[in-house]
Design a protein that fits this description.
elongated; HD/PDEase_dom; membrane; disordered C terminus; mainly alpha; Metal-dep_PHydrolase_7TM_intra; Hypothetical protein af1432; transmembrane
């Protein structure tokens, strides 16, 4: 009886503890939900108030209260439409830090436009709407840029009582959003400004002909239109680096700059760890093919692959691809446990080097996550065979696993898979299409079973597509490159 009572007491206590834990979790979830709704409300209110204050500044051409109320209604409606779009097609964006950046850009563009409207000598055609459209396109997406541009142009047209600027600013803004996708370096921004200027001239010419304006008026406004395009590009060049740094956004321009193989860090990799350098080039090709197959960010994957092993520069000869042959194996002089520590340290070294060179956080994340919590199987087996009985705690599997974290994004996961597949491919004795497909499937399957893909949002269908892309890429390598030296094929597995 006493035992039964004690059991009931324990069950009640456990139930009470679990219920209290559940309540805490529910309260935490409610807090997170409330915080998210508050952020959305605060952002929407801030943008509405900012736009309303700007457009209702003294000096507007009409002071009729009904028109002012109508303008405020348009502001509220515009922000509401933008919010609905983000909630439907980009819900995670509403809870992210760049949401505040978007609000700042919208209000700033409205302020710049308002200043130009209030200057009597400057025509409304000079409003640099392409400044906003190019920036939003570079920092976010061209579609979002087009929507915001159109909404702001409508507000400008209503505020100025000048419907003639509606087609001109719309065309200039849309051209800016479109040309941003072709900007690969910062100097290309001047070309974007030129394209916007040309489109402004054509739009002004068309509107001038429809309005039956004089040739001198059309030519004068055309000069202002060209000036608007170049002014927009100058503003973008001035603020883009600061926005990238402060808000932690990595644009394609920044990634392409980092892809220059003559940069000091990659140049050091070429000279000090040539084997690792060629390994990263191959990993980059594989990873890019895998990213293209599932619609991931292939540029980020390629650049991330270039830098994923930069930590090996610190101790290059402890990694087999730099050793040259099995006779030059530095690990024969140290214990398996110490070898494991040395191999794992290339992640920490890589992260520190990336931070010292101010690489973007997305690249640092790939460096840190590209091994996940994987097991360094070669040295673990070696430790088990040697069987250090005095220090059994050193043979624990946890001492031979990478510290993690596991890949948190599709891009980091693709680099991890490409890294493992390329390392295994180098020691594949028979290289034909069937053996490659089998080996690629085996390597990726092992990662999946080991739980290394549990924390990224790759689906099984996407993993299958990545497997096929890797197999096709490696099959192409077999047809264009000879086999590796025989002593490399005999090696059991890659170190690192």
């Amino acid at each position: 009886m006493k035992i039964m009572k004690e059991k009931r007491r324990v069950v009640k206590r456990v139930t009470k503890i679990n219920s209290s834990k559940d309540k805490k979790i529910q309260i935490r979830n409610l807090f997170v939900l409330a915080k998210g709704h508050f952020q959305k409300w605060l952002w929407g209110s801030g943008v509405i108030v900012g736009l309303a204050l700007i457009f209702l500044l003294p000096g507007t051409r009409e002071t009729d209260w009904f028109k002012q109320i109508g303008l405020i209604s348009l502001v509220i409606l515009s922000v509401f439409v933008l919010f609905i779009y983000l909630r439907r097609f980009w819900p995670e964006f509403l809870l992210s830090r760049p949401l505040s950046l978007l609000g700042i850009l919208i209000v700033s563009m409205a302020a710049i436009g308002k200043v130009i409207i209030l200057l009597p000598q400057v025509p409304d055609y000079f409003i640099p709407i392409a400044f906003l459209s190019i920036l939003v396109s570079l920092l976010f997406t061209p579609v979002l840029s087009a929507i915001i541009t159109l909404l702001l142009v409508i507000l400008f047209a209503v505020n100025t009582q000048n419907l003639g600027i509606l087609p001109i600013l719309t065309i200039g803004g849309m051209v800016g959003a479109y040309t941003a996708s072709f900007i690969h370096q910062r100097t290309d921004l001047t070309k974007g400004g030129l394209y916007v200027g040309i489109s402004n001239v054509l739009a002004i010419l068309a509107v001038g002909l429809v309005g039956n304006h004089s040739l001198s008026y059309i030519l004068t406004m055309s000069l202002w239109g060209i000036g608007s395009g170049f002014f927009s590009s100058i503003l973008v060049m001035a603020v883009l680096p600061y926005l990238e740094t402060y808000f932690g956004i990595t644009t394609d321009i920044r990634l392409l700059e980092l892809g220059n193989l003559n940069l000091p860090l990659l140049n050091r990799l070429t000279i000090e760890a040539p084997g690792t350098y060629y390994h990263t080039i191959m990993v980059a090709s594989l990873a890019e093919a895998g990213a293209d197959a599932i619609g991931a960010n292939s540029l980020l994957v390629r650049i991330g692959a270039y830098y994923h092993d930069i930590g090996k520069i610190v101790r290059p000869h402890f990694f087999f691809e730099n050793a040259g042959s099995s006779e030059n194996n530095h690990h024969q002089k140290v214990t398996p446990n110490l070898s494991s520590v040395i191999i794992i340290s290339h992640l920490k070294d890589g992260v520190e080097m990336a931070q010292d060179n101010r690489l973007p956080q997305v690249i640092i994340d790939i460096i840190r996550e590209h091994h996940g919590t994987g097991l360094i199987a070669h040295f673990y087996r070696e430790a088990l065979l040697k069987g250090d009985k005095k220090n059994k705690e050193l043979i624990g599997e946890e001492n031979f696993r990478y510290p993690g974290p596991k890949p948190q994004s599709k891009e980091a996961a693709i680099v991890m898979l490409a890294d493992s597949v390329e390392a295994d491919f180098r020691f594949l004795p028979r290289r034909n299409i069937k053996s490659i497909e089998t080996q690629v499937g085996k390597v990726i399957g092992n990662k999946l079973r080991d739980g290394q893909l549990d924390e990224c949002d790759l689906t099984l269908r996407e993993i299958a597509k990545i497997t096929q892309a890797f197999s096709r890429t490696l099959a192409g390598v077999v047809h264009t490159r000879g086999r590796y030296p025989e002593e490399m094929l005999k090696k059991e597995s890659k170190i690192g």
